[in-house]
Write a structure and sequence with these properties.
Number of helices: 19
Number of domains: 3
Shape: globular
Largest sheet: 7 strands, antiparallel
Strand content: 15-25%
Radius of gyration: 25 Å
Structural class: alpha+beta
Distance between the termini: 82 Å
């Protein structure tokens, strides 16, 4: 054996030895895992670092009795796990999106949108148990060790819209941790979640019942908004399969019957009065109009637009023409005039056509345009920068497909000029929707309770999804139900 051959062979043996020593048996799964690049003790430090990014993305977490309740349920589930080295921390994100995710080190997040969909404490426990399962199975840590975990960044929406510009402003990057999970890891987290809620005394089948509600919610969302609307819910970041509900039910059936705790009334009391949908701090969509009572402005989209209020922008897409409106805010340290800001700062010296100064309801503004493409189709992008105060601008980008009829073009332009300050009476009258818990009386029906909700369409379907009712289920007199009030 020559020396030239010996050297790489010895390196290979050394590498093999290091890899073998870096594997450990996970107490939750019984599997060997390669996690040398992130020892268990390092997970807490990584989680703490990424937790700060989550807060930067979504803003301050919900505090008070609701957050304390969620934390108590989470800790009740977490104390039944195999890993005693993890100190779990639970947070409620002020977002209407239906989602939950976890970071290494025991950081577990759920949104109030998910809390609104769940119908009892056992279902909440099942969701938290699933996310805890990702932690105990070291899925995130394993992906880091193998180099598959991307940095926290907003790419989820890019997959849905094929637009890097939209992705950079979407503010949904924390979902990357879940986006990287495989179908096998999701199934394993479901199994662990069922195990943990069983040990805590909750109904084993709560995982399956919540997944049923999640599927119904996704189907209704597609029906209301159109199947082409991008979705950012638990199924968009946790792989969905046709038989996942069946798998969760089969897993639940493996365990001996326990107390089958649901704690339905306690759960409904905990979420009674919780904001539903957008909050005043995030701005509110009412019909085709966007209102932001805290900042004090409003504007309207033309008819036919699907509107999404995202953390960093408001986006609208016309179902028929494919026109797009993006609205956001930006600061300008130089406090330049609107035209200088648009041409030199926003566009950074790129060519802008028809750049000119204008006014929008008494506010200084500048407009311009440039040719571009959206989904491979030629468009003209009309821009508007409106000075809210020196150094602060609100901005519109309107992508108009070439060949769009003149009436549609006029409607799009009017939308940018509809931006104005809210009156004092508007600020006090525009309020977020809230969940109200009511008790079904004799003679009341799904139709009569649904009629009380402030929606323009699909009232009964919304009520059934909100309360986990199947198409033919009827109300039970004396039982509590959720409705939405304004």
């Amino acid at each position: 054996m020559t020396q030239a051959f010996k050297t790489p062979f010895l390196i290979f043996l050394l590498t093999l030895s290091l890899m073998t020593g870096a594997c450990s048996t996970n107490p939750a799964t019984g599997e060997q895992q390669f996690t040398a690049l992130m020892p268990a003790g390092q997970e807490a430090a990584v989680g703490a670092q990424e937790h700060g990014k989550v807060e930067q993305t979504f803003g301050k977490f919900i505090q008070g009795p609701l957050a304390q309740y969620v934390g108590a349920v989470g800790h009740k589930v977490a104390q039944n796990t195999e890993r005693k080295d993890v100190q779990y921390k639970f947070f409620v994100i002020d977002s209407p999106v239906i989602n939950a995710f976890a970071l290494p080190g025991g950081y577990v997040y759920t949104t109030r949108g998910l809390l609104a969909l769940a119908n009892n404490e056992a279902e909440l426990a099942a969701v938290l148990g699933h996310e805890i399962g990702h932690v105990t199975a070291r899925h995130s840590a394993e992906r880091v060790s193998q180099g598959f975990l991307a940095q926290l960044g907003a790419v989820v929406l890019a997959a849905a819209t094929d637009s890097a510009q939209v992705a950079n402003a979407a503010g949904l990057g924390s979902e990357l941790y879940i986006k990287s999970y495989s179908r096998g890891q999701e199934h394993q987290a479901d199994e662990l979640g069922v195990r943990y809620i069983n040990r805590a005394g909750y109904d084993n089948f709560a995982m399956a019942s919540f997944l049923n509600s999640m599927a119904a919610s996704s189907n209704l969302e597609a029906k209301v908004a159109g199947s082409s609307a991008p979705r950012a819910d638990w199924f968009s970041t946790h792989p969905q399969t046709e038989n996942r509900v069946g798998e969760a039910s089969a897993e639940a059936a493996k365990y001996a019957s326990n107390t089958k705790m649901l704690n339905r009334d306690a759960y409904l009391n905990a979420i009674n009065g919780m904001i539903y949908g957008d909050s005043a701090a995030q701005g509110l969509v009412r019909g085709q109009t966007f209102w932001h009572p805290e900042m004090g402005f409003t504007f309207s989209f033309p008819n036919g637009f699907i509107i999404q209020n995202q953390p960093s922008q408001v986006a609208g897409v016309h179902k028929g023409t494919g026109a797009v409106i993006l609205f956001d805010a930006a600061g300008d340290a130089s406090k330049a005039d609107p035209l200088t800001y648009l041409t030199q700062t926003w566009m950074k010296g790129e060519a802008v056509q028809n750049a000119q100064t204008t006014t929008v309801n008494g506010m200084r503004a500048a407009s311009g345009s440039f040719p571009g493409t959206v989904n491979g189709k030629a468009v003209t992008v009309q821009m508007m920068a409106i000075e809210w105060q020196p150094g602060q601008f609100f901005r519109f980008q309107v992508a108009m497909p070439n060949g769009l009829d003149s009436a549609s073009v006029d409607a799009l332009k009017k939308s940018t000029y509809s931006f104005r300050k809210m009156t004092a009476s508007e600020k006090s009258s525009i309020k977020p929707d809230r969940i109200s818990i009511v008790t079904a009386g004799a003679g009341q029906s799904v139709a009569s309770l649904a009629a009380q909700m402030p929606f323009d369409n699909y009232k009964e379907e919304r009520f059934r999804v909100l309360n986990g009712l199947r198409p033919n289920d009827t109300l039970v007199t004396g039982q509590k139900y959720k409705i939405i009030v304004r």
